[in-house]
Design brief:
Elements: H1 3-17, E1 19-21, H2 22-28, H3 33-45, E2 49-52, E3 55-58, H4 77-80, H5 85-96, E4 104-107, E5 126-129, H6 132-138, E6 145-147, E7 152-154, E8 159-161, E9 174-179, E10 183-185, E11 188-191, H7 194-204, E12 207-213, E13 225-228, E14 235-239, H8 244-252, E15 256-260
Parallel strand pairs: 4-5, 4-9, 5-6, 9-12, 12-14, 14-15
Antiparallel strand pairs: 1-3, 2-3, 7-8, 10-11, 11-13
């Protein structure tokens, strides 16, 4: 495949998904790893993509959003919060047990990550979050310090996202990032909206360990925009409803699996 054809393929993948992993490009393109890196470097020099850990994403997330888009794709928060409540509460409790007193963590917005909040009250954490629901839950905790990015509030998810890019994020690096997903499968983690993908990639770039919180229903029928490969995930917390097939998929990807009860 000619260089121009490869670059067009890469650009199309990133335009459609918001992010493409180096691993996928290595599987799709019959060229060396060094050639793929040079292709990505040329696209980055032209301002079409941004190189990030594990692959490349859109240089500006707004390039993937339809003109005038004011709502995120996917189920609104008020619908998700009532689904699989008992499982999400157990997952949140198990995830909170991974936090260490006094450290800084990032908690991405979501109905499952929200369930961590009651269980970190006495840990004196510094928490970077984009979720107003999480902020509201943590404000009564006097020992918990809060950081928020700047950007626009998306009401259907009650989260703060900035389509303009990196400048919206505080200069913050954390040992752990806790995040959910719309779906998960062999391809990796999925979200319904490319704006969410871009925001979560910015969080991933700032964390040493990626911890995913998903109830077992998220393993059914994965589809959407790719956030990251399974190879980027360090820990996955789910409930006992996970199938043997999905358990094997997680373990084969060398991800630590925690079953919450």
């Amino acid at each position: 495949m000619h260089a121009n054809d490869r670059e067009q393929l890469i650009a199309d993948l990133i335009q459609n998904r918001g992010f493409v992993s180096f691993q996928e490009l290595d599987q799709r393109l019959d060229v060396s790893a060094a050639t793929i890196r040079r292709d990505l470097d040329r696209l980055a020099e032209r301002g079409l993509v941004k190189r990030v850990r594990g692959g490349a994403r859109l240089a500006s997330p707004e390039l993937a959003a339809p003109s005038g888009q004011v709502e995120l794709l996917g189920a609104p928060f008020h619908e998700n919060i009532g689904r699989h409540t008992a499982q999400k509460e157990a997952i949140g409790r198990a995830a909170a047990a991974l936090c260490r007193p006094g450290e800084g963590v990032m908690i991405d917005g979501g109905s499952t990550t929200l369930q961590m909040c009651p269980h970190i009250a006495n840990l004196n954490l510094q928490v970077l979050t984009n979720s107003l629901h999480i902020v509201s839950a943590l404000l009564p905790q006097p020992g918990t310090r809060l950081l928020l990015p700047s950007g626009s509030v998306f009401r259907e998810q009650n989260i703060i996202l900035a389509a303009s890019g990196e400048d919206s994020m505080p200069r913050f690096h954390a040992p752990r990032l806790f995040m959910g997903a719309a779906a998960i499968g062999p391809q990796g983690l999925m979200q319904a909206d490319v704006v969410l993908v871009a925001a979560e990639r910015r969080l991933i770039e700032r964390a040493d360990e990626i911890i995913i919180l998903v109830d077992s229903s998220k393993f059914q029928g994965p589809s959407g925009h790719l956030v990251c490969d399974l190879s980027e995930v360090d820990v996955l917390v789910t409930d006992a409803g996970i199938s043997d097939h999905d358990r094997k998929m997680v373990e084969d990807a060398d991800i630590k699996l925690i079953i919450a009860d």
